[in-house]
Amino acid sequence: MSFEQGVTVLSGRNATNRTSLLQGIMAALGSDQASLKADSKEGQALLEFGEETYQQTLHRRNGTIVTEGDPYLDDPEIADLFAFLLESNEARQAVARGDDLRDLIMRPVDTNAIKAEIQQLEQRKNQIDSELNELDNLENQLPDLEAKRTRLIDEIEELHDELESAEEELEAANTDVETRREEQSELDEKLNELRDTRSELERVRNRIETERESIEALENEHEDVEADLEELQAGGEANLGRLEAEIETLQTEKNELNEEISQLQRTIQFNEQLLEDPGEFLGGEADNNDGPVTDQLLSDADSETVTCWTCGSSVATDQIETTIDQLQSVYEDRLNERSEINDELEEKRATLNEIEENRSEYQRANRRLESIDEEIERRRDRVEDLTDDREAFTEEITELEAEIDNLETDDSEDILEQHREVNQLEFEIERKESKRDDVEDKIASIEERLDDREGLQDRREKTTEELADLRTRIDQIEDSAVEEFNEHMERLLEILEYSNLERIWIDQTTRDVREGRRKVTKSSFDLKIVRSTDDGAAYEDSINHLSESEREVTGLVFALAGYLVHDVHETVPFMLLDSLEAIDSERIATVVEYFESYAPYLTVALLEEDAQALEGEHETVTEI
């Protein structure tokens, strides 16, 4: 079969392979909701679209149908829900049964992935906030550091002035340099040595002070990390293995339920189609109906019985219908079980994530605590070594001062005092200049760090926007689904003109439910219906009181809302419609033309009398 873009109408009576063709299209697109004829062990669906070819093969193995190949879709779930709108379509059935529509419309959304991404972004934002707070603290230090630098510069200038004066006085007083050259030379040497030793002593003192400040800061951090450890208390470790085992068990149960649900859906679909098109599944084609066996089977198809496809005996159609009802009940039970398992899985995975995150934080804190202890021990050893150096330098200074005292004479007392003054001034200048350089290095380092602030603020703003988008994404999808349904439902009701049916809409509400030990707020979609009496009075009605036609239209509009909200046309440009007989011909034509605006390729299976309303306007296929 070949299809053009737009609407393609498959027109014919029952048992003319129209539904089989739709299932073939679904199979080639990737759906596993297709069936094999009872006498076939294998079948294949092939689709050429554009320049690409897609195919999927169905095999019958151990009483079930398995699929393989290279279909159009890797994951057909969203198309099965909102694009392949056959009679058994879950979206249509959910409306007909009055199920909670919110869970179905949100099923393609990976809420766990969104929550994990939110957690990562929150951690990133907290880290950026911490860095920005650190920059604020550093910026607050700048005024004090700049004032300190200015003060040191002024003090250095004053010391230079004093040194210049002292050197001039020394030069003026040193009138007998030649006669006391040897004494002066030795004295100068000792004074220089004394100055250098004092400089080394001051350097060691500064290092001791710096090391002690670092030790104090590390001890404070040690207390903070210990406090964090007390809060973390890695208490969930004992539950970790149990949770992982429970999650694995629940996942296995879910997989088994998925397989059972899929098998039930195919079985229901197969038996419904058997009732509708019995000749299709009896091993013969339309052009092979001239044999006596085929005549007998087709005769059964026109009566109140159908030939069983498993044993070949005649079975009353009402018995098959009862079986279908029972299977449908089991199918709904399994869907409810899967929903409960999904909720429990989500809760346990969230708990597992919390435990694992707690464990990671606990391990990081322990490693940091060990690192701090090692660093404190190293610095204490360094302080001890520096203390030994300080004592050695102190003793050396005492010895030098004694030697200088021995070299002093009454005649040279003034000159020696002036030498001491000059040496002391030079030492003070060096010390002040060293402090000034340290302050300038700190200022430069802070200013360099502050240059990163704008980039950090941009990152924080972007992260905040991403967080806001993620936190509202689920709400946005829910709001959009409600808006799409209500808008299209209002338009179609106005066009279709159902008598006394005033309005159908989804009312979005929230309710508190218990998940394990926690109470959480969940959104719910409630279908509201308002009718009017002959005298114009309005009253609220329920889905159970809608006519079959009204119910089918509502289900189709809900599926269309999901198709639009999840942009299904970007994933698969095909929409398939079947089993519209409950709607009258004129309204079917209106619905098809309405849906045409949103689906690039719309294929609809109709009875001949229903297709007449669309003939001439769209491509019509009468032979398959």
Can you put this structure into words, describing what you see?
This is Kinetochore-Ndc80 complex, subunit Spc25. It is built from 15 helices and 13 strands. It is α/β, with parallel strands linked by helices. Among the domains are: 6-108 and 549-621, no CATH class; 239-274 and 305-375, Helix Hairpins, CATH 1.10.287. The strands form 4 sheets. Strands 5-11-12-1-13 form a 5-stranded parallel β-sheet, with helices on both faces. A 3-stranded antiparallel β-sheet has the order 2-3-4. α7 runs antiparallel to α9. The radius of gyration is 44 Å and the shape is elongated. The N and C termini lie close together (8 Å).
The count of helical stretches stands at 15
Q: How many angstroms separate the termini?
A: 8 Å
Order of helices and strands: EHEEEHEHHHHHHEEHHHEEEHHEHEHE
Give the amount of beta strand, in percent.
5-15%
- How many strand units? 13
Strand order of the largest sheet: 5-11-12-1-13
The rounded Rg comes to 44 Å
- Which ranges are low-confidence, i.e. pLDDT below 50, for 5 or more consecutive residues? 281-302
- What helical percentage do the residues reach? 55-70%
Q: Which sheet architecture does the biggest sheet show?
A: 5 strands, parallel
Structural class: alpha/beta
Task: Give the overall shape.
Answer: elongated
Task: Please state the average pLDDT score.
Answer: 82
